[in-house]
Structures are given as C-alpha cells and as structure tokens.
Amino acid sequence: MSGHSKWSTIKHKKAAKDARRGKLFTKLIKEITVAARMGGGDINSNPRLRTAVTAARAGSMPGDNIDRAIKKGTGELEGVSYEEIQYEGYGPGGAAILAQVVTDNKNRTVSEIRHLFSKLGGNLGETGCVAWMFAKKGLITIEKSQIDEDRLMGLVLDAGAEDEKDEGDIFEIVTQPEKFEQVKEKLEQEKVAIASAQITMVPKNTVAVGEKHAEQLLKLTEELEDHDDVQSVSSNFNIPDELLEKAG
Asked: Could you count the other beta carbons within 10 Å of the beta carbon of residue 114?
C-alpha cells in the first residue's frame, strides 16, 4: 500500500470525529464557494461544484448553507474573497508534503503553515520543490460492507477507473481526473454508497519512514489537516502498519 493509501484509511476512520467538531462544514463551504466562483453555480455543468455539493449533503449540511455558499461564489450574495494556494515542504524523515489551501488572508496562512512545519520537525519549501513527486488523481473510497470486490472492480474498470485496491476497511478507487465524474456517476447509478470522493494529489513513489520520525510526521500531517484554511494534505510517506494503527 502507498503511504497516501494508508493515510486515507485512517482519515476515513476519523471522519465522524472531524464532522462532530464542525471542521468539515467550514472546509466544505469554502470548497463550494470557490468551485462556484471558478465554474458557475449550476451543478449540472460544473463537475467540481457537483462533487463539493455531494460531499456537503453526505455530511448532512443543510440545503440553505449550500445555497448560500454557491451564491457567495457566484457573487449573488456578498462574501469573502478566497484564494487557492498549494504549499509544499518536507516532514520529519524526508517525506514530501503537499497542503491544498483556501484562504482569505495569504500572509496569515503562510505564517501559520510555516510555524506548523518548523514546530514539528519539517520545513516549508519553495513552490515546485515536491509537487513533481505527485500526480493529480480522482480518489473514491467505498466501505467494504457496500459491495463485493469482484463486482466493484468490474463496475469501476468498465467506467474508466485506473485501479481498485483493498485498503483494510475500505476499497479505494483511483481514476484520471477527467474520468472521476464518470466513475462516480456509475457507482451512484448502481446504488453503491460512496464514503468519500475527491480530486487529490497521489504520490508517484513512497519514502520509508521509521519509528524515530513516524509519530512526529503523523502529528504534522494531522495538524495541517486540522488547520481551518487547509482543504487537504497529501504525503508520500510509507510507515509500518503498526505505527499507523497507533495514530488511528
């Protein structure tokens, strides 16, 4: 399993806790607002917005909140002006880290992100320093209770998916970004409940990280994800399962 896959499994387990803490709504509202600003407020012609709205509904966000976020993005309602930024750096043990950020105050956010990196044994780097180690992919997770693996593999590969993997409690489906909506729609047509679906950065190769750095690296990744302005975090670490389970 790749480092990203292992971490996505743990994030899946933590999803309910994160939702209870209210962090999820903040991040989803930002994504909906930015998606509507970039591609318009019609979910039928804006795949990014459609994905964001689907995630919001899955997280039980009220429809009024979704509508307001869309209208703020399209300018129908007054709202905050958000900027999308990608921060890159290295964590303890040499693992590459990418943080996708949406912020209304770039100076504040970069200061806080730099502080997190330095506090937890990492270094915030220059633009482009690690991005080349990752590829943009669609990533869909399905709880194993939802479907038999052979049937799932047949469905997603026919729909254009690149790969399907067993990741413990979940199946993970990887697609090219342009095939993401097509695969997701096929699963929805077949009434297969999707646990999560996103376009994200997946590492091309992984870096082995031992016990000396593992706890600090996981702490850094988690604190970055916990930051209000960070939408998602990707890393190329490969940490032994027993250390990851402790973190989960």
From this structure: 15
Tokens of 185: 């729609």
- CB-based burial, 25-40: b 16+ in 10 Å, e otherwise: bebbbbbbbbbbbebe
Tokens 């999820």 belong to 24
Q: Are 178 and 186 in contact (CB under 8 A)?
A: no
Length of the chain: 248
Alpha-carbon gap, residue 31 to 56, rounded angstroms:
10
Residue 111 gets the label, from left (phi > 0), alpha (psi -120 to 50) or beta, of alpha
Counts of helices then strands in the chain (DSSP H, E): 9, 10
Which backbone phi and psi does 62 adopt, to 5 degrees? Answer: -60, 145
Segments of the chain assigned E as strands: 83-90, 96-103, 123-124, 134-143, 163-167, 170-175, 196-203, 207-208, 230-235, 237-238
Residue 94: closest CA among 7, 210, 2, 203: 210
Per residue in 201-245, pLDDT tens? 889 888 888 888 888 998 998 899 889 899 989 999 888 777 766
CA count, 13 A, side-chain hemisphere, 212:
4
Whether 2 has a pLDDT exceeding 50, the answer reads no
Q: Nearest to residue 194, comparing CAs of 29, 48, 16, 58?
A: 58
